[in-house]
Design a protein that fits this description.
275 residues; Rossmann fold; seven-stranded mixed sheet; 9 helices; 9 strands; 15% strand
Length: 275
Amino acid sequence: MRAVERLEPGARAYLDLLAGCLTRELFLDQEWWDADLREWPDDVDALRERLRERGWRLVRRGDPTARAEGRDWPPTAETMVGTARLGNVVDCCVAAVLDDVPGDFVETGVWRGGATILMRGVLRALDDPGRRVWVADSFEGLPAPGEDAHPTDVGLDWSHVGALKVSADDVRANFARYGLLDDRVQFLEGWFADTLPTAPIDQVSVLRLDGDLYGSTMDALRALEPRVAPGGWVIVDDYGGWEPCRTAVDDYRADRGITAPIHRVDWTGIWWRKP
């Protein structure tokens, strides 16, 4: 039985509604994407110029399947992880509270903050009195691979991708939009190697990694996995979809002798539970 099924109907309805808002799946019929004219088979330079001259946009509807599976970059939603991975966040966080697994909730790599907003929503729904939600990100997008980058990161320079650069103030505003910004939400701003080792986090019950790259994933694991309490959860967003992330997880588990079975959430997300 999923942990969410142990909730009172009102709490479950609140979290379902919150998740549907965070993904915008409840409003997908009202969402419009700017169409990428580069995908058109014919020469559209003249059309492009005419659109610019008139201040017009060419748009298309969102794809509900892609949104549900977390395979698109939504124009307005606070998360891109999709239905199954958000459900996994809820299940792990609800179980941590109901089963008294000690420790805070942490996500490393938050984009617009959707998963951490949902974590805070769980604490609100269950009236948890003391846990905090840690929101860790560079808030500057992904780092450029350095000279000492792991081989799997070489050639994966996404540091220029503007869509991934969401400021801490924008994420705070997203929390506030849902009435969930308070002193229980703590921001760790900067590169993981600089912020996580000295972060004032004593214990973690749910650790969610969404760092994409080998270096980012390994930095988060080394700093925070040892702080995960017995019975706590480690969730990895990019294991199936990104080779650098998968390699980092496999290397870390092998180095630390971690044999807890890996469970798949969907095409890319996984989790394991600390014995």
